[in-house]
């Protein structure tokens, strides 16, 4: 048996479909309007907390003249075996203790002819002249003769921050007793440098 | 699958490596110049006869006849205090000692010594006479010893020759000077 669809049935079916579409659209519009009016607002709440201020570390080493003298004072007319002292406070003006390293470098014609002895004292050196003494504990930080190619390395060690924790350093420079006469009238330069590097990666949960 | 692998490779090759942060470090430095002393001396003809070589190392007074006098200074040209020295020689065995040192400048033209005078002693050596004189102490840089060279009636030549100076002793504490 073959089914036959009449024109009347087809038209009825089309009318039914249109009716469903109109109904669905009406429901959708109503839902959107409900959302817009907040009728379905959720039961939620927000709480927040801020950390204390966070500050990045500061790295500031300082070489400060000490004991009444100035490191930059020139010395002229050296004769073999002459020597002189310079005093500085190596200070950590940064925000955290750190390990300091230093160098003494020599340039010019006198490189290789001036030996350097670097000593720290646990308290300030006593007098500005060559007879300065250390009434605390002395520590040898480095000793040698810097050349043009190789500076003398000075191990300052860990220095806490603040002026009170400054390291009291004495440099002794000695012109070689065996310096040849050909060096007469020659000049050179001696430089002291300190540097420090702070290392991160620490657990700072506690502050 | 091949397409995915190729994409990953392209990503790896084309991407940039994560930048390494500069170390958190700083430095501070000081420097000073140092210089070595110079040493030397030279003769200067102050007045009278004779001549000094261009380098100041020698003074000569040639006598043909009669009496001749020259006033010479031995200057410490060092940059540090030093003892200066010279050698006197004369090609004659019969002349009197020709060189005299005065502790102060000679008064000219009279040629008198207002201080203490010291005769440079000569010793005969192989047909001539020589003598060495050194300043009794350190002369400051630029200071001089004051000499009078005098010949009288003898044919010959008197020479003064500088010797190496001896600077102040080394090994001194130069912290404040």
Task: Write up what this structure looks like.
The complex is a heterodimer of chains A (207) and B (177). With 207 residues, chain A is of the alpha+beta class. Chain A has a domain at 61-196: Jelly Rolls. Chain A is 14% helix and 36% strand. Chain A has one helix at 7-36; strands spanning 61-65, 75-78, 83-92, 98-108, 114-121, 138-144, 152-159, 167-175, 187-198. In chain A, strands 1-3-8-5-6 form a 5-stranded antiparallel β-sheet, with no helix packed on it. A 3-stranded antiparallel β-sheet of chain A has the order 7-4-9, with no helix packed on it. Chain B is mainly beta and 177 residues long. Chain B has one domain: Jelly Rolls. Chain B is built from 1 helix and 12 strands; from the N terminus they run H-E-E-E-E-E-E-E-E-E-E-E-E. Mean pLDDT of chain B is 86; it is low at 3-18. Chains A and B meet through strand 1, strand 2, strand 3 and strand 9 of A and strand 1 of B.
Strand content of chain A: 35-45%
Name the poorly predicted regions of chain B.
3-18
CATH topology grouping of one domain in chain A: Jelly Rolls
* Biggest interface, CB < 8 A: A-B, 56 and 29 residues
Which structural class should the secondary elements of chain A be placed in?
Answer: alpha+beta
Overview features:
heterodimer, A: 207 residues, alpha+beta, Jelly Rolls, 5-stranded antiparallel β-sheet, 3-stranded antiparallel β-sheet, 36% strand, elongated, B: 177 residues, mainly beta, 6-stranded antiparallel β-sheet, 1 helix, 7% helix
Summed up:
Chain A is an alpha+beta fold and 207 residues long. Chain A has one helix and nine strands. Chain B has one domain: Jelly Rolls.
